[in-house]
């Protein structure tokens, strides 16, 4: 059993301004990587600017990261980092800017490198130090060694390397109160998916189980108070943020499992938000584990003090309802993705192609659904 976690994580309202000196220790020049406007809107960009100025760090802002960040944007960001001679990268945001920031930190240390080298992790130099400020309560990216980047082929693919763990991460749950309700919901079910997929996972250890169970219990407890009114208090936001970090720490050990693996094409081809796309598969994943890992499922539901059917109802009430049908052609084109898929192979029951394809047909194929 091994637990490697090199990120200093500071979770506190006001944490970025209070800890300005910690950013100053990373270098003299910084490239901030953000999305188009959420970092500004929630106040995180202003807090970062305050902290960097106070620490005597000059910075530039690269704010062109869109949802489901693309390799081409990361390559542009890396060029901006090289041009401003950045010593380190500071990502601010939810999963997209944080994942892009990790890729930019790696590409900037290896000018001229291409997409294939990034995905195959054959880049020669280690990445620049990467710092993260989390502004949503879902991704957990601020505490993982994973970045999901969409390649030029339009496919979301993960890079996973201990070199891209953030060296420092700040969590200020106040930022999350600027999210619209639908984002609060989809990020909460994303964090919940991380916990569950980590718990029911061949790679799980005593360390990851503790984080996964604790995260799932916090999220389900809060969501079950939200069935009729979804207003979230400050204290609940603090707890949801903490739970998302626990989810991140759990998947930093195990990686994700079937729901994430089957979610990516729903986002790429059908525009479903990441959390909702994962949540779509959770009712199946619960049944699956009740069948193939009944003891573990029992332990899980005892641990979160909830019955399996209550849990499924909670997910369905929180996530956006998805009614998508796919054609036989689309399923055929997707087929190579399920073959030897690392995340699927970590599941505790059947993982063969036939089983996964039948699941997809039953869930999404027009003729089968009717
Ligand atoms: Fe996720």
Keywords:
single chain; Rossmann fold; two-stranded antiparallel ribbon; 19 helices; 53% helix; binds fe (ii) ion
Could you walk me through the main structural features you see in this protein, from its secondary elements to its overall organization?
The protein has 370 residues and is an alpha/beta fold. The protein has two domains: 168 residues, Rossmann fold; 189 residues, Dehydroquinate synthase-like, alpha domain. 53% of the residues lie in helices and 12% in strands. The protein is built from 19 helices and eight strands. The chain has a six-stranded parallel beta sheet with strand order 1-8-5-4-2-3, with helices on both faces. A two-stranded antiparallel sheet has the order 6-7. A hairpin with a 5-residue loop joins β6 and β7. α8 packs parallel to α10 and α16 packs antiparallel against α18. The radius of gyration is 20 Å and the shape is globular. It starts with 7 loop residues before the first strand and ends with a helix. The model has no long low-confidence stretch (mean pLDDT 95). Bound molecules: fe (ii) ion. The site of fe (ii) ion has 5 residues, from α8 and α12.
């Amino acid at each position: 059993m091994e637990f490697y976690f090199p990120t200093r994580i500071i979770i506190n309202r006001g944490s970025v301004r209070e800890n300005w000196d910690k950013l100053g220790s990373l270098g003299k020049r910084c490239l901030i990587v953000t999305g188009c406007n959420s970092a500004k809107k929630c106040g995180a960009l202003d807090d970062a600017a305050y902290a960097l100025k106070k620490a005597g760090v000059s910075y530039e802002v690269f704010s062109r990261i869109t949802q489901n960040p693309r390799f081409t944007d990361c390559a542009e960001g890396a060029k901006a980092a090289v041009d401003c001679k950045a010593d380190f990268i500071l990502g601010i945001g939810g999963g997209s800017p944080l994942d892009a920031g990790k890729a930019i930190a790696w590409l900037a240390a290896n000018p001229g490198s291409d997409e294939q080298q990034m995905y195959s992790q054959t880049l020669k130099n280690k990445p620049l130090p990467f710092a993260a400020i989390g502004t949503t309560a879902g991704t957990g990216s601020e505490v993982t060694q994973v970045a999901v980047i969409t390649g030029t082929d339009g496919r979301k693919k993960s890079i996973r390397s201990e070199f891209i763990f953030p060296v420092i991460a700040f969590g200020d749950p106040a930022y999350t109160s600027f999210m619209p309700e639908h984002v609060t919901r989809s990020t909460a079910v994303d964090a919940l998916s991380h916990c569950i997929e980590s718990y029911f996972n061949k790679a799980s250890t005593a360390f990851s189980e503790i984080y996964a169970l604790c995260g799932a219990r916090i999220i389900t407890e809060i969501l079950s108070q939200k069935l009729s009114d979804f207003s979230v208090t400050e204290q609940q936001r603090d707890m949801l943020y903490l739970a998302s970090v626990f989810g991140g720490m759990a998947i930093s050990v195990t990686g994700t499992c079937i729901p994430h693996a089957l979610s990516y094409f729903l986002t790429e081809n059908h525009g479903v938000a990441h959390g909702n796309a994962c949540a779509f598969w959770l009712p199946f994943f619960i049944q699956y584990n009740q069948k193939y890992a009944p003891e573990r499922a029992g332990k899980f539901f005892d641990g979160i003090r909830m019955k399996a059917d209550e849990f499924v109802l909670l997910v369905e009430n929180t996530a956006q309802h998805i009614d998508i049908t796919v054609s036989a052609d689309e399923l055929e084109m997707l087929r190579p993705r399920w073959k030897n898929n690392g995340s699927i192979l970590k599941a505790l029951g059947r993982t063969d192609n036939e089983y996964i394809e039948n699941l997809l047909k039953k869930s999404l194929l027009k003729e089968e659904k009717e």
